[in-house]
Specification:
Blueprint: H1 9-13, H2 23-33, H3 41-58, H4 63-77, H5 81-98, H6 101-117, H7 121-138, H8 141-157, H9 161-175, H10 185-197, H11 201-216, H12 221-237, H13 241-258, H14 261-277, H15 281-298, H16 301-415, H17 423-450, E1 461-465, H18 466-482, E2 487-491, E3 498-502, H19 503-519, E4 526-534, E5 537-544, H20 578-588, E6 592-598, E7 602-610
Parallel strand pairs: 2-4
Antiparallel strand pairs: 1-3, 4-5, 5-7, 6-7
């Protein structure tokens, strides 16, 4: 609430002479006046005039805002809402001229409270939402709590209970950590009223009793009257008439002591309801007449019409300001229009120049296009020749690699029996082996170049028996495996298994995987190749008992030039391209490849190809 204590200030501040009054003390007077209770309302009017007079003398630009607001508070305390709203609107206008958002927010809140008391929640909501936008930007906890609390009251009056509860919970959440500095009693009071409207009276009592205990320790009779009246209302609804009567009579006594017609009227309303619940209709009627007399004296048709007239005047003034702004905007738009016309003429001239330049450039482009077409034709012819060259290299390198491997194998066989050969024969065998090694190196270099052009390979699809094909591949690698005493095992299906694919590319996949398996498997171990059918695909698996691959290296296994920690077991060459080539070929023929491996236990490569 905005009307709080501090009567001692009247005797402490104002013995100063006018010469001793400055703007700081004027602001202090204003702040203390905001805490005055209703029994000090006459002092409010006096100090509002004092602040106005001294502000004019000191040329204190905020004096009008402070004085007008105090006058509005005085009129509201006396239930003279038309006069209160008039002063609040003047205070709002003055604060906006100062561009002081703090005073603007205070004026907006005052107007919202006045309209709420007039039972016009929609208008109150209009002003509260404006104040909320300002409070939200400040980020101050006190402002946020007040904003949420005030809006919750309006939503409660509009019977939007869920929205009201959400706002009150937010007010408690923000204010609870600062409860020693921020008074949350109004929030708790509003929470209790909300529970009353929902007929949850026991929960409402929790909040009303909490406020009663807090305010009994203070010296603000206005807040204490609210707590007492709320308890009388709740006990009436709970049909606990003794407690309701006790608090109702106490509330009436306090309202009379405060000399507040509004509080007196509200108390008679509760007492009338209590008498009705007790079946004492004569007393209920008597209290109801008193309530009606006081309430209509405060809020009558003249009051509403006067308030509406004041509101319309204020809006008319706002519209006048808006019209002035609009007029200025029209003048700016007129100037912009003239500038736009000049720019349009300039753009037209530029457009003509651009058109001329375009014609010249188009002729140049036409000549350039003819040259480009000739270059494109030449490039296409070069690409075709280059493809034929790559195809020839691929065929030659692939066809020659196997014979050279066979020559080396049989050469090793002959070298293994030196006693059966003459010296010339032995030298001839050595020359053959040397030439074979040179040829194999040459093939490897050619393959290194050819590997870069796998994507340009022209697919040649044929339907071939994968079982027979795999047996041929295994047969070609038996000599290589024999050199390391490695046993090759084949696990083939009993029936024929046909695959529609590029036989050459499938061959390269199997050869690379078998070659790697033999390279990375120690002497005397085993290598398996298996073929199986899986619905609309075939699976080719190559498993070894080799050195295996570390788990953290598996993601990089198929990368180009990847170097993993695993090494061939007999010093064989490895350039890191094999598995990257395999993956590229597998992708080329729309397949998938997987690897499972464990260091020291070997690896399993699985290739899945669509039939």
């Amino acid at each position: 609430m905005k009307y709080w204590l501090l009567a001692l200030f009247l005797f402490c501040v104002f013995p100063y002479t006018y010469a001793q009054v400055d703007t700081t003390r004027l602001k202090a007077v204003y702040d203390r006046c905001l805490d005055f209770s209703e029994d000090k309302e006459d002092s409010l009017l006096y100090y509002a005039s004092f602040i106005k007079q001294e502000s004019d003398r000191l040329r204190f630009e905020k004096g009008d805002v402070l004085s007008l607001r105090l006058k509005g508070i005085y009129e509201e305390m006396n239930s003279n809402y038309p006069a209160a709203i008039q002063f609040y609107l003047q205070s709002l206008d003055a604060s906006r001229k100062l561009t002081d958002v703090a005073y603007e927010k205070a004026a907006l809140s005052d107007l919202a409270i006045a309209y709420a008391n007039l039972k016009e929640p929609h208008k109150a909501k209009y002003f509260y939402l404006q104040a909320a936008r300002i409070s939200k930007g400040s980020g101050e906890v006190y402002d946020l709590v007040n904003t949420y609390n005030n809006l919750a009251v309006i939503y409660t009056q509009l019977k939007q209970f869920d929205s009201a509860r959400l706002l009150l919970n937010e007010a408690v959440r923000f204010g609870k950590p600062f409860e020693k500095e921020i008074d949350l009693s109004s929030t708790y009071n509003n929470m209790g009223n909300l529970y009353c409207l929902e007929k949850n009276y026991d929960q409402a009592l929790v909040y009303f009793r909490r406020n009663l205990q807090q305010h009994q320790a203070g010296d603000n009779p206005g807040d204490l009257w609210v707590d007492v009246l709320n308890l009388a209302d709740v006990y009436s609804e709970k049909k606990q008439f003794d407690s309701a009567g006790k608090y109702g009579e106490l509330a009436l006594k306090m309202a009379l002591e405060l000399d507040s017609k509004g509080k007196e009227a509200d108390t008679y309303g509760i007492l009338s309801k209590l008498a009705e619940y007790k079946g004492d209709y004569r007393t209920a009627y008597s209290y109801l007449k008193k309530w009606y007399t006081l309430d209509t004296a405060i809020l009558n048709d003249d009051t509403y019409s006067t308030v509406a007239e004041l509101q319309e005047r204020f809006h008319a003034k706002e519209r006048e300001v808006a019209n002035q702004l609009l007029k200025g905007q029209i003048e700016k738009e007129s100037l912009r229009s003239r500038i736009a016309t000049i720019l349009a003429i300039a753009l037209a001239i530029i457009g003509i120049l651009i058109a001329i330049a375009f014609i010249i450039k188009r002729n140049a482009n036409r000549r350039l296009k003819n040259i480009n077409d000739l270059i494109v034709q030449q490039n296409e012819k070069l690409e075709e020749l280059n493809y034929e060259k790559n195809s020839l290299i691929s065929i030659v390198s692939h066809d020659l690699s196997t014979p050279f491997t066979t020559i080396q194998v049989w050469g090793h066989v002959l070298q293994a029996e030196p006693g059966k050969l003459t010296g010339d024969q032995q030298r001839a065998i050595n020359k053959i082996m040397q030439a074979s090694n040179n040829g194999e190196d040459m093939i490897r270099r050619i393959l290194d170049v050819e590997r870069k052009d796998i994507a340009d390979h022209r697919m040649l699809l044929e339907n071939f028996d994968l079982t027979i094909f795999a047996e041929e591949v295994i047969e070609n690698f038996k000599p290589m495996a024999a050199r390391k005493s490695i046993q090759l095992h084949a696990d083939m299906p009993e029936k024929k298994l046909y695959l529609l694919s590029d036989k050459q590319l499938v061959s390269r996949i199997c050869e690379n995987l078998l070659s790697n398996a033999i390279k990375y498997t120690p002497k005397g171990k085993n290598v398996w190749i298996s073929i199986s059918e899986e619905q609309d695909a075939v699976s080719i698996k190559v498993r070894d008992e080799g050195v295996g691959i570390e788990k953290d290296e598996l993601p990089y296994l198929f990368s180009k030039y990847s170097k993993i920690s695993s090494q061939p077991t007999n010093g064989e060459a490895s350039n890191g391209l094999g598995l990257s080539i395999v993956k590229r070929i597998v992708q080329e023929i729309n397949g998938k490849i997987f690897c499972e491996s464990e260091p020291g236990k070997g690896s399993l490569f699985t290739v899945v190809l669509k039939k």
